[in-house]
Amino acid sequence: MPTLAHDRGGDLRRYELAFRVLEQVDGVTDLPAFKTALTGALADVYRVRSTTFFVGRTAQLACADPSPTIIGITRHMLPEYQDMWFQHDIFSTPRALRSMIDTRVSTLGEINGGTQENRLYVTNYLQRHGIESATAMYLDVCHGRKALVGLFDRDPDRIGVQEISSLRLLARPLAQIARGLPESAADQDTVLAKLSPRQAEVARLVGEGLSNATIGAMLHLHPASVKKYVTRILAITGMRNRTELAIALRNTGTS
């Protein structure tokens, strides 16, 4: 039976891995920079031979991303994947997607199966190229799109229980960051461009972390009126909450 000290050690390792990744993506200013920073951080922290970042309107369509971000040994495999295998990616099966929506991270061992084509994807594509460990993380990113982030290695035991738990800890804060990022540097000014001058003024103060009561006192508004402004601002900008709005404004340099 594991000891309490062992359990605490495992918890510390999970959090340590997650924080190391978050440190490396902190301060990115747009989605392309986030993709590059995250794939590099995952490869570095989890010591895997390759990481990938595919984006699409849905998780299934992400597999058809024509220009994914790839680091490591799977880069040379991309042309074959795009030509023959993207429609049969085992991580795009309904079973895999249900698992990832529930837990945000799935491994080959958890979702093995699918159609004959899905099984061939594993044996005739991944394993033929020496890939024995494959893990995918599901993220919501900007403009309502979805991302599949992959970690691949030749060692079947590279991503173990602690690493999977750590990746699941990471998924929520990573998605929160990604949803608040502009599509590109050219889009950074669009966060406030859709708002009226008064809405933009409220948004800037929200971005500074101020409460509705404080904003109301500064702008001579009732807190209930500020709340209505914030609700409308979130709807217009497509942000889910105040934190996402603050991240987006920070990345534009307007808060």
Automatic annotation (TrEMBL):
This is HTH luxR-type domain-containing protein. It comes from Prauserella flavalba. One of its GO terms (molecular function) is DNA binding. Residues 188-253 form the HTH luxR-type domain. It holds the Pfam family GerE. InterPro entries: Sig_transdc_resp-reg_C-effctor, Tscrpt_reg_LuxR_C, WalR-like, WH-like_DNA-bd_sf. The keyword DNA-binding applies. SUPFAM superfamilies: C-terminal effector domain of the bipartite response regulators. GO terms for biological process: regulation of DNA-templated transcription. Keywords: DNA-binding, Transcription, Transcription regulation.
